């Protein structure tokens, strides 16, 4: 039991960078350089589409945006398998 407890404590100290991708778009660099505060960038995603959740830039799940008052959160709708995750990453 000592080794398992030690492993759990080690894993608890590992940090993972989580990112949420709402959508993507491509635009010319000259257009990007012209943008200022308040500029709107249209994303190739519809309002009700699922978003991507990434761990260290690797897709791990799909989810949906949840707004509660002034807070924005992500509700996980599906977790990707290892093969799905690697296929999305390449």
Mean pLDDT: 85
Which CATH architecture? Answer: Roll
Number of domains: 1
The CATH homologous superfamily is termed: SpoA-like
State the helix count: 3
Strand order within the widest beta sheet: 1-2-3-4
Strand composition percent: 25-35%
Elements, N to C (H/E): HEHEEEH
Could you outline the blueprint of secondary structure elements for this entry?
Layout (H helix, E strand, L loop, with lengths): L1 H11 L5 E4 L7 H6 L16 E5 L2 E11 L2 E9 L2 H8 L1
Antiparallel strand pairs: 1-2, 2-3, 3-4
What does this 3D model show about the protein?
The model has no long low-confidence stretch (mean pLDDT 85). This protein is 28% helix and 32% strand. The N and C termini lie far apart (39 Å). The chain has a single domain (16-89), classed as SpoA-like (Surface presentation of antigens (SPOA)). It is built from three helices and four strands. With 90 residues, the protein is of the alpha+beta class. The chain has a four-stranded antiparallel beta sheet with strand order 1-2-3-4.
């Amino acid at each position: 039991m000592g080794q398992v407890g030690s492993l759990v404590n080690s894993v608890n100290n590992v940090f993972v960078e989580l990112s949420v991708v709402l959508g993507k778009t491509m635009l010319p660099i000259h257009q990007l350089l012209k943008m200022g505060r308040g500029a709107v960038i249209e994303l190739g995603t519809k309002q009700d589409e699922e978003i991507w959740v990434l761990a260290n830039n690797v897709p791990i799940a799909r989810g949906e945006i949840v707004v509660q008052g002034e807070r924005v959160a992500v509700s996980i709708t599906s977790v990707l398998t290892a093969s799905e995750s690697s296929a999305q990453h390449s």
